[in-house]
Fold this protein.
Amino acid sequence: MILRRIIKHFRNQEWTAIFLDFLIVVFGILIAFQITNWSEALSERRQEQGIVERLHSDLMSVRDELDQKIAYLEGSIPANAKVHQMMRDSPAGLDRDELNALFENFGSIPGSPGLSDTYVEIQASGKMALISNEALRVALVEHATMVRGSQRAQQARREFTRPYAAPIVRFVALLDDLPAEKAFAAAGDKNDMLIAITMYETIVSNEIASFKELREGYAGTIHLLEAEMVVKP
């Protein structure tokens, strides 16, 4: 309709009308572009908010998990110390039933948490750019680096100490069939067993420190995510 009207104005040499029609067309195109850009920006903000909320949920869950792991490891310290003391006082200090109870969870080290599923997804899909807060993007990348570092460090500690754990593993297995004193004597050298227990106690202390450091890292990133949730409802 606009085109027919413009042609008519040309035929009648109505230059003012032609100019007005031209302005109408230009402004119409500009408005259409503006509406499209606004719609795309709104869609991106909604996607960003969804990502922020999912990241927040992921990190809160892992932080709670870390709290539980720290509590578990700290709660195991008295039992570990008691095992150590009984081994030091052996054979007189050994009690089979008590040792079985103490060894039930002995050597159980919770694994270091993995990366947020949402973080892995947005990294793989290139959606990290949807997060407009540069400080938050940097914090997420640094946090992921810290998590991977924690996993590698834990694996290295386990591989280093695994050979030293053999006497304790043998002793626990022998407790099922032998009296505590005979199981202790058959498991290996007393000094080797004491070294294994000491190393395990050191690992527990290191894991507690590592988990607490991770928890602090989660807390900082969670704070940034919560700020984004407030700023962009």
User: Anything to note?
Assistant: Residues 2-231 form one domain.
